[in-house]
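Q: what sequence does this backbone want?
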């Protein structure tokens, strides 16, 4: 017979379940449908900052009345009174329950238990309460709510994490984010910051005349990035489909259709590895503006980051951040940011001239480094070798905001060839990436709008895909048909939202800024037995 999961076998669960049944028998509803408050704990603190009423006045109901709700996180009996802490979000307020004054909603006089004893014996830490009472300050000056009526809003069946040891295990915190939010106030602050970043971003785009749009997550053909997709099946149409890996293709179709400035904030899915800055499911923003090039997009990106920094910190200097090696750096987002070409960055940070090295020499440097697959290095074109050299020898050294621009065309099948004839001849395209703290934060192009060249590049991607390159893009005839209708000169930008939150919140792991990061599935535990 099945005995349920482990938590149902614990003593804490068994004791609380018994209390739940007793509470119902006493006539108190443990899960009411609704409760109306007049205040929040935060607003209460700011409104009654100088409130001088005392205990006796609050007992008589002669101070400011307030109705609050929250989670019971501390409780201690002291004679005729029970002092408690009520937590709402990251804020707490002291509450006092009095033997003669405090009543429990729904508890009948004939129940055989006093209101005071009900609070002391039937309530547990973690329970949600609604409290109607009167504000006063204790002799020590602590703002307190004198409870006149208590309503049980939710009886909890499991205990909170220990108040002193807290919830420290990283894996448990990621798997059970609800406990993490309860036990660690700084986590709630991080996710409120995430929300503020998204709000500020939307406001910034709208201020610059961008229209927010929504495009499909399920696609017939994936594209817009070099990544392995997730594949799924649509039963209604008996059709295999893909989870999108980028927002780019449908947004460009909207530009073709006459929408001059568009942006989308959405979830992307890439069936790839996981590390401190990568999660298979993540949030990105992409925007496209007609008649812009990558220089315009650089300026726009600087202003966006500045705007968010000012909203969060009232300044563009965001303070100390820790890089992947544990070193501390003071990060300043004040524009203009440094701009340096990919080749020049190799010359400066890797201390050699890329053009003076043969492909064999470049491959040997990468093989000696030992971080990449030998096969990938040996089969790489010169353009791909340039990017690999940059990633292995340069990227981690880019601490302050830096735009790396002018990439080889092999790395970017949707980008416009360089306007400089010499650079175009070398196979350089007008692309930039933004790096801060040795991590990429944004990717942008002067967008390719030549349908003939676009077809050639996608045909090459199709060839690579056929030959086993899982990150290459398949042919997309629908996209090419849209391009043939004509897309004006356009600048495009993509930013990883999760990494942006990591930067502003001072976190070193992407899992710290995702509500529910991807985790391994725990092995199922068989609780069945035979008798």
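A:
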């Amino acid at each position: 017979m099945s005995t349920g999961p482990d938590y149902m076998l614990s003593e804490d669960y068994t004791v609380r379940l018994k209390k739940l049944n007793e509470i119902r028998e006493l006539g108190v509803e443990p899960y009411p449908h609704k409760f109306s408050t007049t205040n929040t704990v935060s607003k209460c603190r700011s409104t009654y900052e100088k409130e001088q009423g005392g205990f006796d006045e609050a007992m008589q109901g002669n101070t400011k009345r307030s109705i609050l709700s929250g989670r019971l996180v501390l409780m201690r009996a002291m004679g005729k009174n029970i002092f408690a802490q009520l937590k709402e979000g990251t804020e707490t307020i002291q509450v006092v329950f009095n033997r003669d004054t405090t009543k429990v909603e729904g508890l009948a006089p004939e129940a055989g238990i006093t209101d005071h004893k009900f609070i002391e014996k039937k309530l547990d830490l973690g329970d949600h309460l609604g409290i109607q009472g009167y504000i006063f300050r204790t002799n020590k000056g602590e703002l307190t709510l004198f409870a006149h009526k208590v309503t049980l809003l939710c009886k909890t069946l499991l205990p909170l994490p220990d108040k002193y040891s807290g919830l420290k295990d990283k894996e448990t915190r990621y798997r059970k984010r609800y406990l993490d939010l309860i036990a660690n106030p700084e986590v709630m602050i991080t996710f409120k910051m995430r929300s503020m970043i998204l709000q500020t971003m939307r406001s910034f785009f709208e201020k610059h005349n961008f229209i927010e749009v929504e495009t499909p997550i399920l696609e017939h053909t994936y594209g817009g990035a070099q990544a392995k997709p997730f594949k799924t099946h649509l039963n209604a149409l008996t059709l295999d489909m893909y989870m999108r890996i980028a927002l780019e293709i449908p947004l460009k179709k909207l530009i073709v259709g006459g929408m001059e400035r568009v942006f989308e904030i959405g979830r992307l899915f890439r069936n790839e590895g996981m590390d401190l800055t990568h999660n298979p499911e993540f949030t990105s923003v992409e925007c496209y503006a007609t008649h812009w090039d990558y220089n315009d997009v650089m300026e726009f990106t600087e202003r966006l980051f500045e705007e968010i920094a000012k909203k969060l910190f009232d300044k563009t200097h965001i303070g100390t951040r820790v890089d992947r090696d544990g070193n501390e750096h003071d990060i300043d987002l004040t524009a203009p940011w440094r701009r340096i070409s990919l080749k020049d960055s190799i010359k400066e940070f890797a201390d050699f001239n890329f053009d003076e090295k043969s492909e064999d020499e470049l491959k040997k440097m990468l093989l000696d480094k030992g971080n990449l697959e030998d096969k990938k290095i040996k089969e790489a074109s010169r353009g791909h070798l340039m990017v690999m050299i940059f990633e292995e020898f340069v990227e981690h050294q880019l601490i302050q905001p830096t735009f790396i621009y002018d990439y080889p065309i092999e790395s970017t099948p949707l980008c416009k060839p360089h306007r400089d004839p010499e650079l175009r001849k070398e196979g350089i395209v007008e692309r930039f990436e933004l790096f801060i703290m040795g991590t990429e934060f944004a990717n942008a192009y002067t967008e390719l709008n030549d349908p003939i060249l676009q077809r050639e590049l996608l045909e090459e991607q199709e060839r690579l895909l056929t030959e086993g390159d899982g990150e290459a893009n398949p042919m997309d005839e629908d996209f090419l048909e849209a391009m043939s209708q004509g897309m004006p000169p356009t600048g495009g930008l993509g930013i990883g939202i999760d990494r942006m939150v990591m930067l502003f919140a001072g976190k070193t792991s992407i899992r710290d800024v995702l509500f529910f990061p991807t985790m391994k599935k725990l092995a199922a535990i068989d609780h069945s037995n035979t008798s």
